[in-house]
UniProtKB/TrEMBL annotation:
GO terms for molecular function: endonuclease activity; hydrolase activity; RNA-directed DNA polymerase activity. It comes from Rotaria magnacalcarata. Signal peptide: none annotated. CDD domains: RNase_HI_RT_Ty3 (cd09274), RT_LTR (cd01647). Pfam families: RT_RNaseH, RVT_1. The lineage of its organism: Eukaryota, Metazoa, Spiralia, Gnathifera, Rotifera. This is Reverse transcriptase domain-containing protein. Keywords: Endonuclease, Hydrolase, Nuclease, Nucleotidyltransferase, RNA-directed DNA polymerase, Transferase. Gene3D superfamilies: 3.30.70.270, HIV Type 1 Reverse Transcriptase, subunit A, domain 1.
Length: 581
């Protein structure tokens, strides 16, 4: 029988039974052993002395190390004095997540002290990691995610940080003189909050003392959690600033990338703008464009493949859990190397559905975020023009979910100002809703109460466009053909101008298709699709030799697309029956 041990901390002599049975003698002072041969003659065999001697370090007292903390402990070793004594952790401690420093020690009268350079993190980080992964039922998957988060735990460190990317921010005001604004009056409580927050930012190195002639006022804004956000009112400065034209990504392009995704991770930065260094010449910035440029630079080739960012909202998406582990580790490493810090309370890890940019995404389907919809449904009847305007604009954000939105909302659109002067003039105007305006308000609310679900576009399935026109305007729906039936991707509606009301029915119907091509060009360009219309004359649009001048101009654009026209009865068009899938 053979016994194998893996936990030895010092060298031992093996083969004691063989030594005794063969009359072997060891001479440690001579570094040799003797062994008799078959004739009884002794053979002297030298053995090589090790180049270094290992001395086990043993605990003086039994100790318990609390989780995620460091502790200075007493050990004993059979060395009194030594220079350049190498101390290294026992290799079998490595898989136990016990960190011991590798170091070169000078032992003097049995004493030497060494601390870990690595930082130990608070128990709060442990709670955040466990809380953000508790929804994962598969234990193997949960531990794999936790392992990635622990290796990148510095991302959740509450200590403020400045990213290590050179400043790309600058502000240009031309030859405009500096603007000085007085501080807004505030209560003693708010004054103390401003002072304390300014003191914190100064101690963290996120701001510095200045004698600049520029001086904007401080504003405290209440957050959703009732705490206060420390802000600076830069409106006067923004008005004279040459804007940074760096583009933000389009929302529809972002959501199109999520069509095949099953797992999602969402990151939110901890006071993201405070982590961005500003140029020494300006110390202020075109915030949105600068932050977007930095995030794009950090994500690099991962962007549009498995990670997207809209300003400071980062989402990681994957088809399988195994892929998600790789993608999550890559993005965490990128952010860690850039020294970004995350807000763990707002991060979502390895979810099968997520709310992103006001929408809920799950298994290739998209719907409005329930929190936003509940806010709209709980809105009271508007009593001022600005209240009506806010409701219409908020509902318009989800117009692609609502068939014939333009016609439905038209009576209430009178409250939406088209110029800055109108906005200032009618902001506090008291209003009384007419019957048509009240009907529009209630109809929009009714639409919002339905389960508004759309499919995200997927190039593996064929597309279909249905269009229609009425005396008031046009409507269209983009569909995809699945085995279980047609699934709606997006709705489009537009109200006619007075001139367009005078067009012929053929022109109005053709105009609906033109608007569809403009709106959904990204989905329809370069592929073959169907166009369904209830106007039979348009089925001959490609073959007809001569039509009126307006349709003739449109035909040149239409023929750039590869499509087949199909006539369907008016009563079966998708948006007329308002079918919700």
């Amino acid at each position: 029988m053979v016994h194998v041990t893996t936990n030895l901390i010092t060298s031992i002599l093996l083969g004691n039974d063989w030594i005794n049975s063969n009359h072997v003698h060891l001479f440690g002072d001579q570094n040799q052993l003797t062994i008799p041969d078959q004739h009884g003659q002794l053979n002297f065999i030298p053995y090589v002395e090790p180049t270094c001697t290992n001395y086990p370090a043993l605990l003086v007292h039994q100790i318990t190390i609390p989780p995620y903390s460091q502790l200075l402990i007493d050990i004993t070793c059979s060395v009194n004095d030594a220079n350049d004594f190498i101390f290294e952790p026992y290799e079998h401690h490595i898989p136990k997540s016990i960190f011991i420093p590798h170091t070169l020690l000078n032992i003097n009268k049995h004493h030497a002290t060494k601390h870990l350079r690595a930082k130990c993190y608070s128990d709060q980080i442990r709670k955040h990691i466990l809380e953000s992964t508790k929804h994962i039922d598969n234990e193997k998957h949960r531990l794999a995610i936790q392992d990635i988060l622990w290796r990148n735990k510095i991302l959740f460190d509450p200590t403020p940080s400045i990213i290590n990317i050179p400043s790309q921010s600058a502000i240009r005001t031309g030859d405009h003189p500096p603007i000085y604004s007085k501080q807004y009056s505030a209560s003693y409580t708010y004054q103390d909050m401003k002072f304390q927050e300014t003191k914190k930012l100064l101690e963290r190195g996120q701001i510095e003392e200045s004698t600049s002639p520029w001086s904007p006022p401080i504003v405290l804004v209440k957050k959703k959690d009732k705490t206060m956000r420390f802000c600076i009112d830069y409106r006067c400065l923004n008005a004279i600033t040459i804007k940074d034209a760096f583009p933000l990504p389009r929302l529809d392009e972002i959501f199109e990338q999520l069509s095949d995704a099953v797992y999602y991770t969402k990151f939110d930065f901890k006071s993201g703008y405070f982590q961005v260094p500003l140029s020494k010449e300006d110390r202020i910035t075109n915030g949105l464009a600068t932050f977007q440029r930095i995030i794009n630079h950090i994500l690099g080739p991962a962007r549009w493949k498995y990670a997207l960012a809209y300003i400071d909202d980062v989402i990681i998406y994957s088809k399988t859990f195994e892929e998600h582990l790789i993608h999550l580790n890559d993005i965490c490493t990128m952010l860690k190397n850039a020294r970004f810090r995350l807000n763990p309370e707002k991060c979502e890890i390895a979810q099968t559905q997520t709310d992103y940019l006001g929408h809920n995404v799950k298994n290739g389907e998209i719907r409005p975020s329930s929190n936003n919809i509940n806010g709209l449904l709980n809105t009271r009847l508007p009593q001022r023009a600005d209240e009506a305007c806010k409701f219409v604009k908020a509902a318009e954000y989800y117009r692609k979910f609502i068939p014939n939105f333009s016609q439905t909302a038209e009576p209430a659109r009178k409250f939406v100002p088209t110029t800055r002067t109108q906005q200032k003039k009618g902001q506090k105007t008291i209003i009384t809703l007419t019957d048509d305006e009240l009907k529009a308000f209630n109809q929009l609310k009714q639409f919002l109460t339905t389960d508004m679900v759309l499919r995200l576009p997927n190039n593996r399935f064929p597309f279909k466009v249905q269009t229609d026109a009425s005396d008031e305007g046009i409507g269209a729906v983009l569909l995809q053909i699945y085995s279980e039936g047609d699934r709606s991707i997006a709705y489009l509606s537009k109200k006619f101008t007075q001139a367009q009301r005078k067009w012929s029915p053929m022109e109005q119907e053709c105009y609906a298709f033109i608007c569809s091509l403009d709106k959904w060009h990204n989905c329809l360009s370069g592929i073959k699709f169907e166009w369904e219309t209830d106007h039979k004359a348009l089925t001959q649009l490609k073959q007809k030799a001569k039509i009126n001048k307006r349709c003739e101009r449109w035909r040149l654009k239409i023929l750039e697309y590869d499509f087949k026209v199909k006539h369907i009865p008016a009563h079966v068009t998708f948006f007329r029956v308002v079918t919700r899938l």
